[in-house]
């Protein structure tokens, strides 16, 4: 790899700095990345190479954590987010995206942010990371995928109340989710003929209308209308039989109807190694599948596995044909 992954620092009062340091120690030159943040926020004792150019990370990573210094307004106190640092968090993300857009980085990996601190300190106008990245990438619609070696899942609706799902789940939304997922599996994962399995909304996929009619009224008809050109699409399947070992061999990604339908199986199968991938962006973006963990920040006990897997997946995706 001739270009490093750009890792934005995320919320400095969370576990981001310490898991970045541990990820570097685990990966070193096997997966070169450059951390964008304030070196003051990193754990004591970690060897740091402050760089002027991200290309220098390739040579530096064997012996030190490559850092593009990004000064923040305040030091970090573990577990206590400071709104004064909100602008630094935002501009670190912008800098990582700019490096990917200009070809200086192979991908973007983002450490967790804390939305309240960003709102309090910088009037952050986006619901979360994903929407901000979509705006930076100039796209209106992106898809969240959770991926591990055992399973890839895509929730069609995400952070909304369960009572809102039947109203927000529309034919257009489901169609767009399927189309973006197919293209993402081709472009980012190198799967020439993706296989998608679509879960039903209701128990037993409605059981012929006895437990809900969405599958009969519009989900199954929609799936029948989508031209399967270079991919296969099956469903709607009962969600309770979609994630066992034999079923998972029959698809490359499962399209789910709501948040927990997607996230419960992947977190049950591979809690520490799940990676958040944003499909539909003009650059590669991965992230660990966890939050800032203020309750354990600074204690040296945070598990870096999800970040390590996010960096490794970004590297694999960047190398996809």
UniProtKB/TrEMBL annotation:
Main subcellular location: cytoplasm
Pathway this chain belongs to: Cofactor biosynthesis; pyridoxine 5'-phosphate biosynthesis; pyridoxine 5'-phosphate from D-erythrose 4-phosphate: step 4/5
Binding sites annotated in the UniProt record for a divalent metal cation: 159, 204, 259
Cofactor remark: Binds 1 divalent metal cation per subunit. Can use ions such as Zn(2+), Mg(2+) or Co(2+).
EC number: 1.1.1.262
Alphabetical UniProt keywords: Cobalt, Cytoplasm, Magnesium, Metal-binding, NAD, NADP, Oxidoreductase, Pyridoxine biosynthesis, Zinc
Matches recorded under InterPro entries: PdxA, PdxA_fam
Catalyzed reactions: 4-(phosphooxy)-L-threonine + NAD(+) = 3-amino-2-oxopropyl phosphate + CO2 + NADH
GO molecular function, one term: NAD binding
Keyword Electron transport: no
GO biological process: pyridoxal phosphate biosynthetic process; pyridoxine biosynthetic process
GO CC terms in record: cytoplasm
Cofactor(s), by name: Zn(2+); Mg(2+); Co(2+)
Uppermost EC category: oxidoreductase
Note: The active site is located at the dimer interface.
Chain's role: Catalyzes the NAD(P)-dependent oxidation of 4-(phosphooxy)-L-threonine (HTP) into 2-amino-3-oxo-4-(phosphooxy)butyric acid which spontaneously decarboxylates to form 3-amino-2-oxopropyl phosphate (AHAP).
Cross-referenced NCBIfam families: pdxA, PRK05312.1
Subunit structure and binding partners: Homodimer.
Family: Belongs to the PdxA family.
Protein name as it appears in the record: 4-hydroxythreonine-4-phosphate dehydrogenase
Naturally occurring in which organism (per UniProt): Antarcticimicrobium luteum
């Amino acid at each position: 790899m001739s270009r490093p992954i750009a890792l934005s620092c995320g919320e400095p009062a969370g576990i981001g700095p310490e898991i970045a340091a541990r990820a570097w120690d685990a990966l070193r030159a096997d997966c070169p990345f450059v951390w964008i943040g304030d070196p003051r926020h990193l754990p004591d004792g970690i060897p740091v190479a402050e760089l002027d150019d991200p290309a220098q990370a390739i040579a530096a990573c064997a012996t030190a954590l490559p850092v593009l210094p990004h000064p923040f307004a305040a030091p970090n106190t573990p577990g206590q987010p400071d709104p004064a640092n909100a602008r630094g968090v935002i501009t670190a993300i912008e800098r990582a995206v700019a490096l990917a857009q200009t070809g200086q980085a192979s991908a973007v990996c983002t450490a967790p942010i804390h939305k309240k601190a960003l709102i309090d300190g910088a009037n952050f106008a986006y619901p979360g990371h994903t929407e901000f990245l979509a705006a930076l990438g100039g796209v209106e619609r992106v898809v969240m995928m959770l991926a591990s070696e055992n399973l890839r899942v895509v929730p069609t609706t995400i952070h909304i109340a369960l009572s809102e799902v039947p109203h927000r789940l529309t034919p257009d939304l489901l169609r767009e989710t399927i189309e973006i997922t197919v293209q993402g599996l081709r472009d980012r994962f190198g799967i020439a003929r993706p296989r998608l399995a679509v879960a039903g909304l209701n128990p037993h996929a409605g059981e012929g209308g006895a437990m809900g009619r969405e599958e009969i009224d519009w989900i199954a008809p929609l799936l029948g209308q989508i031209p399967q050109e270079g991919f296969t699409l099956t469903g709607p399947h009962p969600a309770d039989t979609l994630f066992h070992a034999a079923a998972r061999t029959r698809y490359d990604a499962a399209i789910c109807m709501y948040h927990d339908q997607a996230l419960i199986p992947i977190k049950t199968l591979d809690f520490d190694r799940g990676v958040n991938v944003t499909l539909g962006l003009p650059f590669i973006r991965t992230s660990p599948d966890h939050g800032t963990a203020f309750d354990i920040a600074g204690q040296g006990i945070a598990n870096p596995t999800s970040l390590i897997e996010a960096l490794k997946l970004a590297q694999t995706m960047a190398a996809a044909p």
